[in-house]
């Protein structure tokens, strides 16, 4: 299997189907089944809500149940590779609406925004390909179509991190952001106290005051500012140079592993939720290489068995 660089990589049938199936599950998981977003208004409308569209209907009655059934029904042809120029944009819209309603409450939640961005990128790719090559593509796997879809998702992931990194650099400068590590214990305390006063549960040992690893982490970073600067600089470098993942399979695998390590560390110390980002990184950056390695291992074992026979 030949490889090019800074271009869509070749993917086997198993890679394409598994990536599409797991991503479909991730999209479906994005939407709650019950009224877990019981908003009755849009006090600070953004996005489609900012255009005057009332999205509160999503949380009325049993709407979310049927909403999920509709989304699940559309994800079936998505997994099967059918009518993608039509199905994917509708899935994108369904994925965007609940998040838009939530973000219209006066605060912005970035936890799940990567998934709609990936869907937007794939929708643009499927529509563009249909315009250029027509709607005649059928079958579970179409090599050129599907390698482009995976690459579009990888571009969306890279864009999210690069923009985040450049925003930090624009705000504070590269070294200025790193120097802010001395304030990291303060940020930890703010985050931990916010979690405590929101849930009345200690992020440390479950008591009524901050304890355990929560206060221990604060003390550790207060006494080891150099380590805090190292962590912040490593995260910033990862974000700014995340576009490296577009070079090829190995770079995507390496950046994907670094993203998961980075978010795991941040989640541990800051109690922030980056599950969706880590799952998307695994699906689009790490999984293809793992499947390719397993296929190559299986082929070697098969050839060896035939040789011995």
Order of helices and strands: HHHHHHHHHHHH
Biggest sheet features: none
- Indicate the structural class: mainly alpha
Query: What is the rounded Rg?
Result: 22 Å
> How far from one another are the termini?
27 Å
Low-confidence stretches: 203-213
Globular, elongated, flat, extended or rod-shaped: what is the shape? Answer: globular
The tally of strands reads: 0
Query: Helicity level, as a percent range?
Result: 55-70%
Q: Average pLDDT, to the nearest integer?
A: 83
Beta strand %: under 5%
Number of continuous helical runs: 12
Give an overview in words.
This protein is mainly α and 309 residues long. Helix content is 70%, strand content 0%. The chain has helices at 13-29, 47-50, 63-80, 84-103, 114-133, 143-172, 174-179, 184-199, 212-223, 225-240, 249-270, 275-308. Residues 203-213 have low confidence and may be disordered.
């Amino acid at each position: 299997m030949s490889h090019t660089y800074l271009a869509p990589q070749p993917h086997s049938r198993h890679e394409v189907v598994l990536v599409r199936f797991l991503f479909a599950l991730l999209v479906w998981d994005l939407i709650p089944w019950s009224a877990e977003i019981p908003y009755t208004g849009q006090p600070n409308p953004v996005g489609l809500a900012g255009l005057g569209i009332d999205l509160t209907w999503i949380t009325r009655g049993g709407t979310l149940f049927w909403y999920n059934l509709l989304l699940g029904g559309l994800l079936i042809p998505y997994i099967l590779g059918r009518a993608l120029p039509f199905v994917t944009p509708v899935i994108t819209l369904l994925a965007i609406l609940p998040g838009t309603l939530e973000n219209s409450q006066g605060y912005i939640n970035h936890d799940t925004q990567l998934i709609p961005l990936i869907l937007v990128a794939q929708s643009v790719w499927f529509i563009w390909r249909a315009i250029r090559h027509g709607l005649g593509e059928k079958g579970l796997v179409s090599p050129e179509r599907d390698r482009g879809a995976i690459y579009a998702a990888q571009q969306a992931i890279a864009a999210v991190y690069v923009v985040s990194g450049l925003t930090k650099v624009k705000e504070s400068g590269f070294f200025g952001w790193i120097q802010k590590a001395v304030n990291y214990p303060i940020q930890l305390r703010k985050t931990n106290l916010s979690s405590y006063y929101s849930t009345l549960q200690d992020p440390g040992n479950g008591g009524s005051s901050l304890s355990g690893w929560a206060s221990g982490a604060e003390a550790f970073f207060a006494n080891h500012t150099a380590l805090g600067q190292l962590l912040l600089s490593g995260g910033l470098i990862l974000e700014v140079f995340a576009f490296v993942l577009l070079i090829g399979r190995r770079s995507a695998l390496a950046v994907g592993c670094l993203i998961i390590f980075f978010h795991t560390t941040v989640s541990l110390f800051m109690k922030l939720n980056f599950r969706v980002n880590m799952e998307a990184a695994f699906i689009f950056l790490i999984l293809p290489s793992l499947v390719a390695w397993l296929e190559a291992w299986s082929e070697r074992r098969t050839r060896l068995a035939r040789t011995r026979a």
